[in-house]
Amino acid sequence: MNAEDVEPGTVRPGGRTARVREAVLRAAGDALVEHGFDGLDLADVARRAEVGKTTVYRRWSTPAGLVADLLTDMAEQSVPRTDTGSLEEDLRANARLVARTLTDARQGPLFAAVIAAATCDTRTAQALHHFYAVRVAEWAGCVSAAVERGDLPAGTDAGEVVRAVSAPLYYRLLASGDPLDEAAADRAAGAAAAAARAGVYVA
């Protein structure tokens, strides 16, 4: 593969350059929280990260490339799924993790900014879709395990169950403005578990 064939922001640096990537992505996240995607400026990110503008422009090229790499990093840093042996407890842990993330002083505004950016930028949307595909696949394991234990009907779509847990929580964040707390998380998990047991998510 030639260098010119590589899309900017898709190659992960290693060794000593890893700290540059870490600093730039942290700065990009700060800028997104403060100004949103429309206000994301590569020169400002370079200043915040205390690295040369040339480095940022060469490696990420565009704000969309930078956000794509930020989402890749977020997926890699995400907390592994819980494995308690109980479907309800596993889904509750997932829901509470989502709620904590979305109400975090930094992570909540960051996710809101990225989601807003994805509505008008194709590359950001693709990166966001990949991020959630990684997270859904990770947590789907607890649903698949429940099927294997006989706790859920055969043929249950594990990914759909996981998405059903987090969807009401994102609705509260982005649309209704209703409280996003542990009670809401537990209700979302309980509803998804009940629907799964009833066969709603059998493919």
TrEMBL record:
Keywords: DNA-binding, Transcription, Transcription regulation. InterPro entries: Homeodomain-like_sf, HTH-type_TetR-like_transc_reg, HTH_TetR, Tet_transcr_reg_TetR-rel_C_sf, TetR_C. It comes from the Bacteria. The keyword Transcription applies. This is TetR/AcrR family transcriptional regulator. It holds the Pfam family TetR_N. PANTHER family: HTH-TYPE TRANSCRIPTIONAL REGULATOR RUTR (PTHR30055), TETR-FAMILY TRANSCRIPTIONAL REGULATOR (PTHR30055:SF148). Residues 41-60 bind DNA. Residues 18-78 form the HTH tetR-type domain.
